[in-house]
Structure formats: structure tokens, C-alpha cells
Amino acid sequence: MIRLELLDETHLGYVDALLDDPDVLRFTRIPVPVPDGFARTWVDMYEQARRDGTREAFAAIDADGAFAGLALAPEIDQEGRQLELGYIVSPGMRGRGIGSAILRALTAWAFEEVGAQRIFLLISVGNEPSLRVAERCGYVKEGVMRSLHLKQGIRGDATLWSRLPTDPGPDA
């Protein structure tokens, strides 16, 4: 069971810890090297975007009250009712279904609270655990977007996954 709570300054220490994880840096768009004060800047950016409805971020909290990771909507197109979602699982929580729980909760929020008509994920082709999470959560792989992101001088491919409110759920 995962509970989502709005990301704010009380979560800065957890975000800072995530920025020390090599997999988080490898598979996200977080700049490398991580700039000083990035966690604060990132949280502030999401808090500002929350006010204008263009982004949202949540801390994912497990049943014991422990920080389990982040649930993110880095792009919200309110007029088009389309969102990009993302998730980061804390290193100590990996391999226990937390990623799937985070994405299921975030997907439910997007459909029920935001009224999304299309949700999409961009996942690095090398991020096998995240690819499995997307599939387990009922997302449909649309294809590979070649040379999508530039990070540390290297262009990377990403898979595009989507869910529509009419798609069968993950348990179908």
C-alpha cells in the first residue's frame, strides 16, 4: 500500500538521498553532476508549477510511514488532458513491488483527479525494472523514441508507453 502526499520541503532530505543513487542519475533527466542545491530547486519548481497546474510531485509513503520514492507528473497539459508521469523508487525499497504501487496510485490520481484522457511514460530503453513496472500497470508500449535525451554528451533512446481511460486495467 502506497500513499501519495504532496512533495514539499519536509521531503528535501529524502530527495537529496535519491540524488546520490547512481541508477536515479542514470535513468532520469536529473543533470549530472547534480548542481549544488538541486533538491531545493527541484522541490521549489514543482511547488510553483502546482500553483499553475503544469506539474505535480508527490512523496510516496509506504504502509509503515517510510519514504518509498517519488511520484511525478513532470508535464501536465490541462487543455489536452494529457500527462507525462514518472516514478523513482528509493534504493532500499526496490524489488518489492513499490514501483508498481507508486505508478498505480499516480495513474489513479491522473485519471480520477485530473481527468486525464491520455497518460504517457518515457522510460530509458536500458531501465528493465521500470519497463516491467509500466507493463504490469497496464501501460501499452507504443515504440522507441530514438536519440530522445542528451545527458553527459550522450544521446539516449526511450520507450514511449501510454494508458487511456478506456484501456483495460492491469488486472484485466
Describe the overall structure:
The chain has a single domain, classed as 3-Layer(aba) Sandwich (Aminopeptidase), CATH 3.40.630.30. Helix content is 31%, strand content 35%. Strand 4, helix 4 and strand 5 form a beta-alpha-beta unit. The two termini are 20 Å apart. The relative contact order is 0.14.
Q: What is the CATH class?
A: Alpha Beta
Number of spatially distinct domains: 1
Structural class: alpha+beta
> Approximately how much helix is present in the residues?
25-40%
CATH homology group: Gcn5-related N-acetyltransferase (GNAT)
Strands of the biggest beta sheet: in what spatial order? 1-2-3-4-5-7-6
* Uncertain stretches of 5 or more adjacent residues: none
Count, helices: 5
Strand composition percent: 25-35%
**Morphology call:** globular
Number of strands: 7
Radius of gyration: 15 Å
Order of helices and strands, N to C? Answer: EHHHEEEHEHEE
Query: What is the averaged pLDDT score?
Result: 93
